[in-house]
Design goal:
The complex is a heterotrimer of chains A (174), B (712) and C (100). Chain A has 174 residues and is an all-alpha fold. Chain A is 74% helix and 0% strand. In chain B, a hairpin with a 2-residue loop joins β1 and β2. Chain C has 100 residues and is an all-alpha fold. The termini of chain C are far apart. The chains are: A mainly alpha (174), B mainly alpha (712), C mainly alpha (100). Chains in contact: A-B, A-C, B-C. At the A-B interface, α4 of A face α27 of B.
């Protein structure tokens, strides 16, 4: 039982707990906050896996921007609580059941069929963040330039789309 | 000019023209007649008939030149089926040429007469356009009669037989929409129908005879039949001859099929003269004469024929006594004289029969045509009396001029043929009177007119071989003279009983000249066969064909008895009708003394009524029954409508429509639609609009795929 | 030394939780957040493999995923706002007008 393993298990537990918390929380703000925590945990995982830039990006973009956006909208819409009306009573048990089956199936599949890949090396091997960043940048702009440009356009589109979608006629508040 | 006997030459090749010259005549009149004047139409027709007469003369000369041998002139192949060969062949021998001469000769004279007669008749009946049709029919008749007498086989004879029956129908019903008094009526067409139907009964007998003949001999041809007749059982010949007698009874107006001939007087007078006195009715006599060889083989049949003729002669003569219509008297007289002829040929006296046929043609045609002249005279007189001094109808003016006949102005119904309207015509129509006298004397059998010689020969033969026939015929001869005398006194002597008779006018020459020719023939016709040695001209002539001719010398006893009978009859008639001429409206002087007998004579012994009661009315009832009950109610209503249509309706409506279609197919189709609807209704619930459930189905799919991957 | 399988199992569990969230919750925003969770689970798996296989492509890929996720969130939330403006609710069960 090495240190990484223990760390991993603890972090895994946290991740799962926060995910479940997000799921079952009645208050949407609580759910968002749980999710932020989940993202942070995942960022730590990234660090453990030797991807510092991604970890930072995760925190910055996901936890910092996206979730904030979520919180803005939750506040905006006043959707903290929703009445608990039952429309499809069979949905919940069935969904849980099926999801459980899926989980079991995937684990099983993985355990029995997956090829041994190897272990994760300790982070010392690629711990140099600058080095990691430099290599990331090189690879990005050398081999993945087109996706990069397309993604930029995608972001542009998203921005324009968001503005267009929420543009209102005069007289109404945004 | 005399040619050898071995190769028949001469004018025999002209034989087909006998038939085709009248045909050409009628075709010309049909096609171009619309543009011709009446004179031209009549001339064309008369020329056609006259040309046929010329051909007959040439043929007769050829026969004489060939020493009387019979010549067959093949003309056309008709029926050739397998071994059966029936051809149209002309037979020119002494017997057929005799008939040809009579038919075409008397026929031509009547054609000429008819030009004048019909000119006036169509104007009296207000239909000048019908003039052409008359002459077309007359020519057709001549053609058909020629086919009859010139045929070489019973088949061709029958063709002509039927043809003249048709022409008789057409001509009797010439004024088909009216009766004899020109009133709209079915009478004339009924008379024509009666003639046709009664003849048909006779034809039926002839046909049966023909069938037996063909079955027994295999041929219709005269020579072949006569040859084969000697080698079959006599019963067959009896059957053939007796059935032929039925045909003769129909065509030659013997008992029991004579009833059509008096009604046939509905036709115009030339028709009565030509067809019902001189030619068509003699076809039966010709038939028996032609079949002489057959009849000579079976004396029993001969006896029946002779008795039929004799009884008919007497029967008809009694009816003639009670008739008032001038033409009806002559009609019954014709029947009676035909009885003489049939009796003669029945007894085997074929020459006598043919002789009487020829002389009768002369004087009966003369009498009929003169009667026609009398009728026309009365019509003219009637018009003069009605129109006062309206003198548009002149005598003998032909040409186109409009004549206005206002028949409607004559308010009374005037019968120009009724002898009770006549009287005193001797003074107003002298020519007609003398011609009529000649005819009467010839008919009554007074020396030296033609009728005396021919009738006398028949009586002589009867007295020798058939006494019963002799007695019957003598009594008939007595009545003949009596009713003819009665007619003469009533028509020509005394005072006019009607204003029409008072104003009667003589007929035009075109009418009287043919009559004069006939009168001459009636006077001199006896020369044809005088019963003196060396003068049996007709006998010798017919001997070529008949082979067995008994040439009898004059028997003064028989001649004397017949003359006395005739003169006595005329005297008695003078006593009754001539001495005290009838006044207008007076009933017949015989009525009271004879009582019911006279009523019987007047009403033709009610024979027609008997036929109606026994045959015609039951037949009508039967046909009514068949039509109404059997055909309409049973067959049509029940079988067709109820059963067939009903079944079909049931089938199509109930079985197919309701059960098969509605309950079966429709139900299925509807079920299909309903099922689809309910199925879709059920399946529609999947699309409940909730995104979550859709996502659930996606998850389900993923689970299944992953599970599949596990299991693989 | 953590075997890759552990990371993958964790990723699977997180993914399943995300799926459950999509299916169970009626709040559109929560559903959206569950979708983000699913994306994250996938990212985790990719990075884990990238590290195990010593390949940089995985990290690049995650980089792009994060970028796209950001864009997607932006547009998606704009849409949810729009829907809220017309329906005055973000309960997905009320958006069932396309029901058959």
């Amino acid at each position: 039982m090495s240190l990484e393993l223990i760390l991993f298990l603890i972090l895994a537990l946290v991740a799962i707990a926060t995910a479940i918390g997000m799921l079952f929380s009645h208050n949407a703000v609580y759910s968002a906050l749980f999710l932020v925590l989940n993202f942070v945990t995942v960022a730590v995982f990234y660090l453990l896996l030797g991807a510092p830039f991604i970890a930072m990006a995760q925190i910055t973009v996901y936890a910092g921007a996206i979730m904030v956006l979520f919180l803005f909208v939750i506040m905006l819409l006043g959707a903290e609580r929703l009445p608990d009306t039952r429309v499809l009573p069979w949905q919940r048990p069935l969904a849980i059941g099926l999801a459980f089956v899926l989980a079991v199936e995937s684990v099983y599949l993985l355990v029995t069929k997956a090829r041994p890949v190897g272990d994760i090396l300790p982070p010392e091997a690629t711990v140099n963040a600058v080095e990691n960043l430099r290599m990331l940048g090189t690879t990005l702009f050398r081999y993945y330039l087109l996706p990069f440009e397309v993604t930029s356009i995608l972001l542009l589109v998203a921005m324009v789309g968001a503005i267009v979608l929420t543009r209102k006629e005069k007289g109404e508040q945004k | 000019m005399f040619l050898s006997e071995a190769t028949p030459s001469g004018f025999f090749f002209l034989a087909p023209w006998l038939v085709f010259l009248p045909v050409i005549g009628l075709l010309i009149n049909i096609i171009f007649g619309g543009r011709f004047s009446e004179k031209v139409i009549g001339t064309v027709a008369s020329l056609a008939s006259g040309a046929a007469f010329v051909v007959s003369v040439l043929l007769a000369w050829s026969v004489a030149a060939g020493h009387g041998g019979a010549v067959s002139v093949p003309f056309a192949e008709w029926i050739h089926i397998g071994g059966l060969e029936l051809d149209w062949t002309f037979r020119v021998d002494s017997l057929s040429t005799t008939m040809m001469l009579v038919v075409s000769g008397v026929g031509t004279l009547i054609h000429i007469y008819a030009i004048g007669y019909m000119h006036e008749d169509v104007r009296f009946k207000n239909d000048p356009g019908r003039f052409r049709r008359f002459f077309v029919f007359l020519n057709l008749f001549i053609a058909m009669m020629m086919i009859l007498v010139s045929g070489d086989s019973y088949l061709m004879l029958f063709v002509g037989w039927e043809g003249v029956g048709l022409c008789s129908f057409l001509l009797i019903g010439f004024w088909y929409e009216m009766d004899t008094l020109a009133r709209p009526s079915w009478a004339n067409s009924n008379a024509a129908k009666k003639a046709f139907v009664t003849n048909r009964v006779g034809d039926f007998g002839f046909l049966i005879a023909g069938f037996i003949m063909f079955w027994a001999f295999g041929s219709f041809q005269f020579d072949e039949v006569f040859e084969a007749a000697h080698s079959v059982a006599p019963g067959v010949i009896v059957a053939i001859t007796l059935f032929m007698l039925v045909g003769v009874a129909g065509k030659s107006a013997q008992i029991p099929l004579y009833v059509w001939l008096p009604d046939a007087m509905a036709g115009p007078t030339p028709v009565s003269a030509l067809i019902h006195a001189a030619t068509m009715v003699t076809a039966g006599v010709y038939l028996v004469t032609r079949s002489a060889e057959l009849y000579m083989l079976v004396p029993q049949a001969q006896y029946i024929v002779a008795m039929t003729g004799a009884i008919t002669a007497l029967f008809a003569a009694t009816i003639a006594v009670g008739q008032y219509d001038i033409k009806k008297v002559l009609a019954y007289s014709t029947i009676s004289q035909l009885g003489f002829m049939v009796a003669a040929v029945g007894m085997g006296a074929f020459v006598a029969g043919m002789f009487h046929l020829v002389t009768h043609a002369f004087f009966k045609a003369l009498l009929f045509l003169s009667a026609g002249s009398v009728i026309l005279g009365l019509e003219r007189g009637h018009h003069h009396a009605a129109h006062g001094h309206h003198d548009d109808h002149g005598k003998g003016k032909k040409g186109k001029r409009k004549e206005e006949h206002h028949e409607e102005e004559h308010h009374e119904v005037f019968d120009p043929g009724d002898m009770r309207n006549m009287g005193g015509l001797r003074k107003t129509m002298p020519v007609t009177f003398w011609l009529y006298m000649i005819g009467t004397l010839a008919l009554a059998g007074i020396f030296p007119f033609a009728g005396f010689w021919s009738k006398d020969e028949i009586l002589l033969d009867a007295s020798l071989h058939y006494p019963t026939v002799y007695v019957l015929l003598s009594i008939a001869a007595f009545f003949t003279a009596f009713y003819m005398g009665r007619q003469i006194w009533m028509v020509f002597f005394g005072e006019a009983r009607h204003e029409a008779a008072a104003h009667a006018e003589e007929s035009k020459p075109i009418i009287t000249v043919p009559l004069m020719v006939l009168a001459a023939l009636s006077l001199l016709g006896g020369a044809l066969n005088l019963p003196f040695e060396g003068f049996h001209n007709l006998g010798h002539w017919l001997e070529y064909t008949l082979h067995e001719v008994e040439a009898l010398p004059l028997d003064l006893k028989v001649a004397g008895i017949s003359t006395v009978l005739a003169l006595t009859a005329i005297l008695i008639s003078w006593l009754i009708y001539g001495r005290n001429p009838l006044k207008a409206g007076q009933i017949d002087p015989l009525k009271r003394p004879l009582g019911f007998l006279f009523t019987g004579m007047e009403n033709k012994w009610f024979v027609d009524e008997g036929y109606f009661a026994v045959i015609i009315n039951p037949f009508k009832k039967l046909s009514q029954f068949l039509a109404d009950v059997v055909d309409w109610r049973f067959w049509h209503d029940f079988v067709h409508d109820t059963i067939i249509a009903g079944t079909y309706n049931w089938f199509s409506n109930i079985a197919l429509n309701v059960y098969a279609d509605q309950k079966g197919i429709d139900a299925f189709a509807n079920w299909l639609g309903d099922a689809t609807q309910s199925l879709s209704g059920a399946m529609r619930k999947v699309q409940n609009g909730f995104v979550r459930s859709y996502a659930l189905s996606v998850l389900l799919g993923v689970v299944l795929i992953v599970g599949y991957l596990i299991l693989k | 030394m953590v075997p890759v399988e552990y990371y993958i199992i964790l990723s699977a569990i997180l993914f399943t939780i995300g799926v459950t969230g999509v299916l169970i919750r009626r709040n559109a925003l929560i559903i959206f957040m569950s979708i983000e969770l699913m994306l994250n689970a996938a990212n985790l798996a990719i990075v884990a493999f990238s590290s195990a296989l010593k390949s940089f492509s995985g990290q690049i890929f995650v980089f792009f995923v994060i970028a796209v996720a950001a864009a997607e969130v932006a547009v998606g939330l704009a849409l949810i706002v729009e829907i809220f403006k017309s329906k005055h609710s973000i309960d997905v069960d009320q958006m069932s007008s396309l029901k058959g």
